[in-house]
Amino acid sequence: MKNVASLWMTTTSGPSMRSDSEEQGGPGEQKASPVRPSFGKKQLPSIPKNAVPITKPSSPASAAQATNGTHASYGPFYLEYSLLAEFTLVIKQKLPGIYVQPSYRSALMWFGVIFIRHGLYQDGVFKFTVYIPDNYPDGECPRVVFDIPVFHPLVDPVSGELDVRRVFTKWRRNHNHIWQVLMYARTVFYKINTMEPLNPEAAVLYDKDIQLFKSKVVDSVKLCNSHLFDQPKIDDPYAISFSPWNPAVHEEAKEKMFTHKRRPEDLPKGLQVSGLSWVKPGSTQPFSKEEYPLQT
């Protein structure tokens, strides 16, 4: 029994056992705490083996923070969570004429398209990509780059990038949101601003020769629309792309959409039915096509 007790003390205390004098200490000294086994401590869950960090330290301050193992390991996942929260805000805002989808490969890149319904850029369908800085939301404003450069005073004619920094000069955390950037990208096609343009030619024509400006805008809209069916520049399954109408593929989906509307007798009593929310052919007035009369 004596041998068993000594063996147990050796395995639990380890080779660095303090002597009696070290444990007791001198007068007035606190007694040292015994060594605790490692299995008693609370630990964060391990990082997945295939996890790829989204961010890298881009400043001395962030580099200092990265020396902390927890921050360096879990920071990218917090970033992705905040970006998904931003995307939820975009959905809740129900931005008119704007469709956007985060990339499959990186939450820092979103694909989008803007539909312009009236004004100088009417019938324009402009595909774009939102590039979010890797230190979001503490960095600069996200960038908006059109796939095909649009003829516009605030769009760079070479790179296709929209000037968003004139509005979001300093990105403020918890105050600015990506949905605001998207709304601005839509607004510039309805309210033309020629101050400090990225495309000086477009600005001069808008101020001095509006007819020639309109002509170039029409050509730009046609050019952008002609590239809608092109394959995305980025090999990403979530990159927005369009395909020509194919009855064998799309007709069935169209019929399901048209027949999905409930019949009046299937609706709760007392609910008024104003018809389908489509536009009557040849009219620009919304809700102008009614399938059933109003029920009282």
UniProtKB/TrEMBL annotation:
Residues covered by the UBC core domain: 78-226
UniProt keyword Membrane present: yes
Cross-referenced SMART domains: UBCc
Gene Ontology biological process terms from the UniProt entry: apoptotic process; protein transport
TM ranges: none
Primary localisation category: membrane
Polar residues bias spans: 8-18, 56-67
Subcellular location: Cell membrane; Cytoplasm
Membrane-related topology note: Peripheral membrane protein
Keyword Repressor applies: no
Gene Ontology, cellular component aspect: cytoplasm; plasma membrane
Ranges where the record places region Disordered: 1-67, 260-296
PROSITE patterns (alphabetical): UBC_2
Keywords: Apoptosis, Cell membrane, Cytoplasm, Membrane, Protein transport, Transport
Pfam families: UQ_con (PF00179)
PANTHER family noted in UniProt: UBIQUITIN-CONJUGATING ENZYME E2
Protein's name according to its UniProt entry: UBC core domain-containing protein
Organism: Pygocentrus nattereri (Red-bellied piranha)
Organism classification: Eukaryota, Metazoa, Chordata, Craniata, Vertebrata
